[in-house]
Amino acid sequence: MISRKPVTPANALVRLQELCARSEQCSHEVLTKLRTWGVEDRVARKILALLKRDRFVDDSRYVSAFVRDKVVFNRWGRAKIRLALIQKHLDSDLISNALGEIDADEYRTALVEVLAAKARSLPETESYESRNKILRHAASRGFEPALIIQLLRQPDLWKRSD
Questions:
Q1: 1 domain residue, yes or no
Q2: What percent of the chain has pLDDT over 70?
Q3: pTM for the whole structure
Q4: Gap between the Cα atoms of 156 and 109, Å rounded
């Protein structure tokens, strides 16, 4: 393993400001990055406080952006998003508020696209086994089983456009 010399606090602050200007970062990610750079914990907390003061790091803004991006681009459901945010040690109130702001139509559209994509990959969709595969796939993407079943029962979902 290559031994790296620790990053100075001033250099770490500048690097993190540049990183946060390019993409949203949460407090946990910033602290993790500082630890990997060899910055001691007390100094890392001061750097994080400076970044928060200057609004380079804002966990509520991060959570909102994360939720929006995961629904729109990654087609994730609420459960998978919640778990990902919990792993980042974010406040559960922030998570709940952001998940509550998900547009219902956008969410439903994401789920329909996940269901349709899986259905296209199967030779037929009318059997119990095929529908079960589709349900399991959508549930693994974090969508709620009740909503998945509701959509699976809609006959217009199964009209193939290919």
A1: no
A2: 94
A3: 0.89
A4: 14
**Selection from 116, 87, 71 nearest residue 26 by Cα:** 87
Asked whether 63 and 25 are in contact (CB, 8 A), the reply is: no
Q: In this structure, are 82 and 110 located in the same domain?
A: no
The parent domain of residue 20 ranges over 9-53
**Residue showing tokens 């949203």:** 24
Q: Which residues contact 50 (CB under 8 A, 6 or more apart)?
A: 13
C-alpha distance across the termini of the chain, in Å: 52
Distance CA 148, CA 78 (A): 13
Q: Which two tokens stand for residue 153?
A: 């029962």
Q: How many CA atoms lie within 13 A of 80 on its CB side?
A: 18
**pLDDT (0 to 100) of residue 6:** 74
> Tokens representing 162?
């290919």
User: For the segment 90-132, what is each residue's pLDDT rounded down to a tens digit?
Assistant: 999 999 999 999 999 999 999 999 999 999 999 888 889 999 9
Q: Which of 51, 79, 82 is nearest to 66 (CA)?
A: 82
pLDDT of residue 154: 84
How many whole angstroms from its chain centre is CA 143? 13
> Structural domain tally of the chain?
3
Task: Output the six-digit token pair for 107.
Answer: 């969410």
